[in-house]
Amino acid sequence: MQATQTQIVFTDKARCRDCYRCLRACPVKAIGVRDGQAFVVEARCISCGTCIRECPQQAKAYRNDLAEARRLVGEADPVAASVAPSFAALLSPWEWRRLPSALRRLGFTYVSETAVGAFHVAAETARYVERTPDRPHVCTACPAVVSYVEKYRPELIDTLVPVVSPMIAHARQIRAAHGPRTRVVFIGPCVAKKAEAQRPEYRRLVHCVLTFRELLDWFEAEDISLSECEESGFDETPGGAARYFPLPGGLARTATLHTDLLDEDIVAPSGFEEVFEALESTQGERPPRLIEPLFCPQGCINGPGMTKPGGVYARRAQVLRFAGNGSNGSRVNGTTDDPGVDLAGVFHPDPHVAHHRFTEEQIRAELARTGKSRPEDQLNCGACGYASCRDKAIAALMGLAEPEMCIPRMRRLAEQRTDRIIETSPNGIITLNERLEIIHMNPAFRRMFCCSDAICGRRISYLMDPEPFERLTTGQESLVTLTVRHEKYNLLCHEIIYRLPEERQYVGIFVNITSSQANEEKLRQLQSQTARQARELLEHQVTMAQQIARLLGESTARGEELVRNLLQYANDPRNTNEKPAIWGMYTSTS
User: Fold this and answer.
1) Do 205 and 184 form a contact (C-beta atoms < 8 A)?
2) Is the pTM of this model over 0.90?
3) DSSP reduced 3-state for 332
4) What is the 3-state secondary structure of 244-258?
5) What are 374-381's contacts with CB under 8 Å, separation 24+?
6) Which of 109, 94, 98 is nearest to 224 (CA)?
7) Which of 311, 282, 309, 279 has the alpha carbon at shortest distance from 297?
8) Residue 154: strand, helix, or coil
9) Which of 28, 6, 30, 49 is nearest to 189 (CA)?
10) Among 125, 337, 334, 112, which residue's Cα sits nearest to residue 239?
């Protein structure tokens, strides 16, 4: 499935290997499976990029907007770059001051840090929290969290702080300062920003969103090396602590709120599990006053568009070092209280997400279809990607799951097919335990050796010579093949006997070749008879040829004698006036 014009995350079907890992990782189960192929359900997806990070085959990808960014810088209107502060985790310290120059080489006319907008978002958030102190507040800097609440937890929308994200705030500031014709390109580690830029209320505000991966590809395509770029500063950088925004607790620190991690009033969860628990706490008796959630574990430094190798804590250390460097020589314009633009954000339930309601009868019927009608059959193993068999049944009713996704069920079916193959095999199959006692026989074996299941438990010597099986018990051989005549049963069998070490069992496969040997004997007799008849025919032909040759020889000799006599008679002058009778006969007939 390829991405539509608006779809952000999609599946590369050529790489998908039917492992369900993306489904297990997806926090909102926005993955469907059809014919063994996973696909992203656009309406359910929150573009968090978790599946992109988790897919071992790199079968999940996000929409590449590099062509759009290149088109923008190629036009006449000015283009501004808004760079997320997490770029410090992407680059080495010596590259930090070269990045602005590299961006200008690409064609950007204005290069600034998104943290300029983050500073004002933090200040506005603090003011809002102070105005409404008796309720929980969920910060809205992370677009994946906002999308999750709008799609799946609409009852919590009132807890969202009505303030835009740093990207939107910075874009509004840039266009207010440099004119409405200025195009804005956001550059960061986040895939959800691509979806945020498409929200109707932000239409044509952020014209393009690139990940760091796309930016590096752009540098490579333009043959731009940071080592060859001169050092320079951003056109505008933030003051305060706004560069800490990519890390958990960065907003609270920027807003100069109390940031002690042991404070029960302020929490900074990262990763879906922590975010989920934090959102649940808003419905409790003593919810935190401020929740600063970041959907990616350890924050934006672990976003799906981040290409920096190494551990997340090494990236965290680089951001801390960069944030502690102050303005880094750039013009500071983020410390005033007035942002100069409206920072209000409006959030609402997403009408495109269908919340299906199925009856218990429908769910039970779907469970029964996969052999899980009894509670003890519902293993809830999670191998299919869903937390429970019930959840998977509901997904199947929604058209997002298939019966074949249930690994225990497929294993059970495979075992049943194996049993069916053994039971219907024309070859005799017997299983013995380590004491060479009969465990199981298939119908063909029972017919061949004229026995029934009543002898199960007896030693194999009850039916036949146990010597081939005893050879396996020594451990020196693991496979014995031989042909044995069982006179008692009028059988000639080709036998394959092997052991199952882990089960401590022995298996014998008996192929009845009695009729085959009889047919071979008949064939040999036919071949012998045919050879004898061929020899007789050949002798007869030779005799006939000899007789024909003798007769032809005698006839030829008499003919030659007659011709000589005629020639002599014709040449004798005494016979001039006389013609032999034969001559007259010749002329009369002429």
Assistant:
1) yes
2) no
3) strand
4) HCCCCCHHHHHCCCC
5) 379/408, 381/407, 381/408
6) 98
7) 311
8) helix
9) 49
10) 334
Round to whole Å and give the CA distance between 160 and 150.
10
Taking residue 284's Cβ as centre, other Cβ atoms within 10 Å add up to 9
Q: What residue has token string 């190629």? A: 74
Q: In 179-211, which ranges are continuous DSSP H helix?
A: 192-197
pLDDT at 42: 94
The tens place of each residue's pLDDT in the chain, 590 residues long, gives 444 568 999 999 889 987 889 999 999 999 999 988 899 999 999 999 999 999 999 999 999 999 999 999 999 999 999 999 999 999 999 999 999 999 999 999 999 999 999 999 999 999 999 999 889 999 999 999 999 999 999 999 999 999 999 999 999 999 999 999 999 999 999 999 999 999 999 988 999 999 999 999 999 999 999 999 999 999 998 978 999 999 999 998 898 765 566 678 899 999 999 999 999 999 888 899 999 999 999 999 999 999 877 789 999 999 999 998 764 444 444 455 678 899 999 999 998 887 788 999 999 999 998 888 888 889 999 889 999 999 999 999 999 999 889 888 888 777 777 788 889 999 999 999 999 999 999 999 999 999 998 999 999 999 999 999 999 998 888 899 999 999 999 999 999 999 998 888 999 999 999 887 666 666 667 667 666 766 766 777 777 777 777 766 666 666 677 667 767 766 666 655 554 444 444 444 43
Spatial separation of the C-alpha atoms in residues 351 and 427, rounded to whole Å: 62
Q: In Å, what is the CA distance from 388 to each residue of 363, 406, 429, 497?
A: 12, 11, 39, 43
DSSP per residue over 468-502, as a string? HHHHHHTSS-SEEEEEEEEGGGTEEEEEEEEEETT
What is the amino acid identity at position 339?
P
Helices (H), 135-203: 143-152, 166-178, 192-197
Q: Compute the distance between CA of residue 298 and CA of residue 288 in angstroms, rounded to an integer.
A: 20
Cβ neighbours, 10 Å, residue 293: 27
d(CA 543, CA 44) in angstroms, rounded, equals 96
Residue with token string 């807890």:
159
Between CA 93 and CA 318 the distance in angstroms is 8
> What 3-state class would DSSP assign to 210?
strand
How far is Cα 363 from Cα 395, in angstroms, rounded to an integer? Answer: 10
Distances from the Cα of 251 to the Cα of 126, 139, 166, 266, angstroms: 9, 9, 10, 11
CA distances from 413 to 119, 163, 196, 404, 420 (A): 60, 54, 45, 10, 10
User: CA-to-CA distance for 344 and 335, rounded, in angstroms?
Assistant: 19
Cite the beta strand spans of 172-223 per DSSP E: 183-188, 208-211
> Rounded CA gap, 173 and 121, in Å?
12
Pairing of strands 183-188, 208-211: parallel
Q: How far apart are CA 362 and CA 400, in angstroms?
A: 15
Q: Whole-angstrom distance between the N-terminal and C-terminal Cα of the chain?
A: 101
